[in-house]
Automatic annotation (TrEMBL):
Matches recorded under CDD domains: MltG_like
Recorded topology in the membrane: Single-pass membrane protein
UniProt function note: Functions as a peptidoglycan terminase that cleaves nascent peptidoglycan strands endolytically to terminate their elongation.
Regions crossing the membrane: 21-41
Family, per entry: Belongs to the transglycosylase MltG family.
Subcellular location: Cell membrane
Alphabetical list of Pfam families matching this protein: YceG
Domain of life: Bacteria
Protein keywords: Cell membrane, Cell wall biogenesis/degradation, Lyase, Membrane, Transmembrane, Transmembrane helix
Gene expressing this chain: mltG
Protein's recorded name: Endolytic murein transglycosylase
Length: 363
């Protein structure tokens, strides 16, 4: 009996050891599973690839619920786990996602993805922004590119003046870039076609092609708003941007673009040269604080002192205000204007009245 009791005690100890080992093993497995699960969930809540700025096209169909949206995002590689994204949106009580086509990246956070799907637009924090002011020539735009990106100004100019590249862009933007830009008298085909604005970029080194297309797309969007007016007035896009560029270059802080536009139109109606100094400076290819009388004699198609009508093409990049002024001029009888030392414009109907303004405001 004593031996049997000892045997039972031994068995109990063995069982306890086995149970203890099993319990420890289970705890370890649970801990490992918990740790792995925590790591998996944590990684699923982070961007797929913080360094990737590759645009991935994603289509969200009409009527899509969060389950379908989550599956699409996982399938496209935008998120790691559809279920976690689904639970995350429910936890944050997010809804009202919009159908549409999106260009998303693996560097976007879940919150950025959610914001994009809610607003119907891609919401991301740009790596940097680049401001291209109104009134810059293509050479000056090249300088802005060089200042804000790793690209050299000469490389940018070489690309945007390459005939093969320009012709390629013409096929991509047929309503914007027409045969008019290939006129033999035009200095640069894309002069005045790169819309001046502040642009966000989502990678440190966007290509020259990407920068150009971003600016062209903006100009295409702006100009397309006025297509019915252009058709009605039998005015080409090229004429519009050329006219608007003159207004942009003549503008000062207090300039009335609509009234200046009326002066130009009134002169064109009677075949009177526009006689605007910025075209002379463009013809000379250099900046001057003051245009001299001898400069007005330069033999160049852009010189509106020597040639009647608009110059061959834009002389700078015009903003929306100048574009709208070109389409909506004031109704006046003015043929002359000048800006005084404070930048205020003074208009005149006759040359004698203009001379009086010169005497009064500039001497």
């Amino acid at each position: 009996m004593f031996n049997k009791m000892n045997e039972r005690k031994g068995e109990v100890k063995t069982v306890r050891k086995i149970v203890g080992i099993i319990a420890l093993a289970v705890l370890i497995i649970i801990a490992i599973a918990g740790f792995s699960g925590y790591n998996y969930v944590s990684s699923a809540l982070e961007p797929m690839d913080p360094e990737s700025n590759k645009q991935i096209e994603v289509e969200i169909p009409m009527g899509s619920g969060i389950t379908l949206i989550s599956s699409i995002l996982e399938e496209k590689g935008i998120i790691k786990d559809a279920r976690i994204f689904k639970y995350y949106t429910k936890f944050k009580n997010e809804s009202a996602f919009q159908a549409g086509d999106y260009s998303l990246t693996q560097s976007m956070t879940l919150d950025e993805i959610i914001e994009s799907l809610k607003t119907g637009r891609v919401y991301r924090e740009p790596v940097f922004t680049m401001t291209v002011p109104e009134g810059l020539t293509l050479e000056q735009v090249a300088g802005v590119i060089q200042k804000n990106t790793p690209h050299k100004a000469e490389d940018f100019l070489k690309k945007v003046t390459d005939k093969t590249y320009v012709e390629q862009l013409m096929t991509e933007y047929p309503d914007l870039l027409t045969e008019n830009i290939l006129n033999e008298n035009i200095r640069h085909a894309l002069e005045g076609y790169l819309y001046p604005a502040t642009y966000p970029f989502y990678e440190e080194n966007p290509s020259i092609e990407e920068i150009v297309k971003t600016m062209l797309t903006s100009m295409n969007t702006i100009v397309s708003e006025y297509t019915p007016i252009l058709v009605e007035r039998e005015m080409t896009v090229h004429e519009l941007l050329t006219f608007a560029s003159l207004l942009e270059e003549e503008a000062t802080a207090q300039t009335d673009r609509e009234t200046i536009a009326s002066v130009f139109y009134n002169r064109m109606d009677i075949d009177m040269p526009l006689q605007t100094d910025p075209t002379v400076l463009y013809a000379l290819g250099s900046h001057k604080d003051r245009v001299l009388y001898e400069d007005l004699e330069v033999d160049n198609p852009y010189n509106t002192y020597q040639n009647v009508g608009l110059p061959p093409g834009p002389i700078a990049g015009a903003g929306k205000t100048s574009i709208e002024a070109a389409l909506n001029p004031s109704q006046t009888d003015y043929l002359y204007f000048l800006a005084d030392k404070e930048g205020t414009n003074h208009f005149a109907k006759s040359y004698d009245e203009h001379l009086a303004n010169i005497e009064k405001y500039l001497r």
